[in-house]
């Protein structure tokens, strides 16, 4: 774990470095895997999201380095009705898409309906089904969402079926990044490679498997943003190769972080350590267990797997860059329960549970993992642990996009190691660790409920908790969510393994605060970076 003193000093150093920065210049960022899409309705991982944020904006955003919402495309925070169900947004005037057209409230309505449309196959659909009339639209019973009303070119009203304490956070997500209908229609299914938004950068070029180049939007509506003239994102670079490229001055930021093989060398060398940036992430890295595939549909089998995995050994593989997880929620998330014990490492008890489930001789299964180090090595460690209780695991080490596709397809991936795809907060509320990844709503094709678990009783409890919108109810709401996650932990659809402390390296010329380089929501705040 990093210390506050180290982080504070590093942040101060970087911020002071900003005094030497000037507008303009280019930076280069590296990733091993190619980018799948820049369509904000579809792209949903730590690699896509910050690049989408370069091209698009939402009505709301967060103040840098904080959890405080602030207007972005909205001219002000919305007016909210007394019953907490109706939000009226007023838009900034004169904001233009990168194709030159002025953005209007019709674009907001189109954007939200596009995310809800099943044809879009958006993993964010379930976030917005609480809007009045959204479910009828999803089910094909209505041609429009009745709860989204355009009042004027610059005014929009959104009505919910029920109050939702997290709704404004949801409106700041990438799925709510505003897109122009004509650009989507023109590009068709290729909109993810030909994105058009209102954002601080435009996509200049994209050579699949090699690089993406973003250029400053000269007509951007936010003053003094962005600082950089351009950003080049190189893909297909092994993290160790990228690390050497940074040493040669060819890379400015390691998108995949410091490679494990070089971690001790970097952190022990005073000169190299000066370029390190670290921050505790609000995330949980886990092994998902598909409840729709036998014998993982038996809770005893899932509990046995939880008890068979040595999490301490996995932490050693990642050089201790994390904290052992005992449940779904990370420690920095509101509603985290310090008393949650989780499952202790106990292979003997695990074997007994398998025997009770009629699997004394074990069983065969598969485990999917991304091919970026150290994930294949962690998968091998899990494979070895499970072999000790008679579970014979075949490993499938694939590109990130292939793992996501398999994991989001019912009855395809029995087990998925989430390393590199760990669940990280979309917004600072415990509902974000339930609805998109563990609810019945998210147990759909293309979703991130990889265990495909569906507990309607827990859904009802979470829904009731989200209706607790009054400030005086917030303590009780968080207590209820802690109870919901305790119940989910007993079902053992995940093996929560660790909460990551993220480390990366930057070049000496790159200027940006810790929160800009390791932002808890956007991962990298490209618009606020600059060069000396």
Automatic annotation (TrEMBL):
Keyword set includes Transport: yes
PROSITE patterns attached to this UniProt entry: SBP_BACTERIAL_5 (PS01040)
Alphabetical list of CDD domains matching this protein: PBP2_NikA_DppA_OppA_like
Stretches assigned to the Solute-binding protein family domain: 69-442
Family: Belongs to the bacterial solute-binding protein 5 family.
Keyword terms of this UniProt record: Plasmid, Signal, Transport
UniProt entry tagged with the keyword Transport: yes
Any one GO molecular function term: peptide transmembrane transporter activity
Pfam family, one: SBP_bac_5
Name of the protein this chain belongs to: ABC transporter substrate-binding protein
Signal peptide start-end: 1-21
GO biological process: peptide transport
PANTHER family named in the record: OLIGOPEPTIDE-BINDING PROTEIN APPA, PERIPLASMIC BINDING COMPONENT OF ABC TRANSPORTER
GO CC, one annotated term: periplasmic space
Source taxonomy: Bacteria, Thermotogati, Deinococcota, Deinococci, Deinococcales
Family annotation (InterPro entries): Peptide/Ni-bd (IPR030678), SBP_5 (IPR039424), SBP_5_CS (IPR023765), SBP_5_dom (IPR000914)
């Amino acid at each position: 774990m990093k210390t506050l003193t180290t982080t504070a000093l590093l942040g101060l150093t970087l911020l002071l470095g900003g005094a030497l920065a000037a507008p303009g210049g280019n930076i280069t960022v590296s990733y091993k895997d190619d980018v799948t899409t820049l369509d904000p309705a579809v792209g949903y991982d730590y690699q896509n999201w910050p690049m989408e944020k370069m091209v698009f904006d939402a009505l709301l955003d967060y103040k840098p380095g904080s959890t405080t919402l602030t207007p972005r495309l909205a001219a002000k925070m919305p007016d909210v009705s007394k019953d907490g169900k109706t939000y009226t947004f007023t838009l900034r005037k004169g904001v233009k898409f990168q194709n030159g057209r002025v953005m209007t409230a019709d674009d907001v309505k189109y954007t939200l309906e596009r995310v809800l449309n099943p044809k879009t196959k958006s993993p964010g659909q379930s976030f917005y089904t609480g809007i009045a009339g959204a479910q009828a639209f999803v089910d094909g019973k209505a041609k429009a969402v009745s709860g989204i009303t355009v009042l004027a070119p610059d005014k929009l009203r959104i009505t919910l079926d029920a109050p939702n304490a997290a709704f404004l956070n949801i409106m700041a997500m990438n799925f709510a990044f505003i897109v122009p209908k004509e650009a989507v229609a023109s590009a068709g299914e290729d909109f993810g490679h030909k994105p058009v938004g209102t954002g601080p950068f435009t996509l200049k070029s994209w050579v699949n498997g090699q690089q993406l180049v973003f250029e400053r939007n000269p007509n951007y509506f936010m003053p003094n943003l962005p600082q950089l003239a351009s950003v080049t994102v190189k893909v297909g670079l092994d993290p160790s190769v990228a690390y050497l490229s940074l040493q040669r001055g060819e890379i400015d930021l390691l998108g995949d972080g410091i490679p494990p093989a070089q971690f001790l060398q970097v952190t022990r060398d005073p000169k190299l350590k000066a370029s390190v940036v670290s921050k505790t992430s609000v995330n949980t890295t886990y092994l998902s267990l598909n409840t729709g595939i036998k014998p993982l549909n038996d809770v005893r089998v899932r509990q046995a797997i939880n008890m068979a995995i040595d999490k301490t050994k996995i932490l050693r593989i990642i050089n201790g860059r994390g904290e052992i997880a005992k449940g779904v929620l990370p420690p920095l998330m509101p509603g985290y329960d310090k008393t949650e014990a989780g499952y202790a490492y106990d292979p003997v008890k695990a074997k007994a549970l398998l025997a009770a489930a009629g699997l004394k001789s074990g069983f065969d299964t598969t485990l999917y993992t991304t091919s970026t180090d150290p994930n294949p090595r962690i998968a091998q460690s899990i494979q070895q642990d499970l072999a000790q209780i008679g579970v014979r695991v075949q490993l499938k080490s694939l590109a990130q996009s292939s793992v996501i596709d398999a994991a989001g397809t019912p009855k395809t991936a029995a087990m998925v190691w989430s390393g590199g795809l760990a669940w990280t907060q979309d917004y600072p509320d415990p509902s974000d660790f339930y609805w998109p990844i563990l609810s019945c709503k998210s147990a759909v094709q293309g979703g991130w409920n990889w265990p495909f678990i569906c507990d309607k009783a827990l859904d009802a409890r979470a829904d009731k908790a989200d209706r607790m919108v009054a400030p005086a109810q917030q303590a009780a709401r968080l207590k209820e969510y802690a109870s919901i996650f305790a119940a989910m932990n007993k079902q053992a659809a995940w093996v929560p393994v660790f909460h990551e402390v993220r480390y990366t390296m930057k070049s000496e010329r790159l200027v940006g605060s810790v929160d800009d380089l390791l932002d808890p929501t956007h991962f990298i705040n490209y618009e606020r970076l600059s060069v000396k």
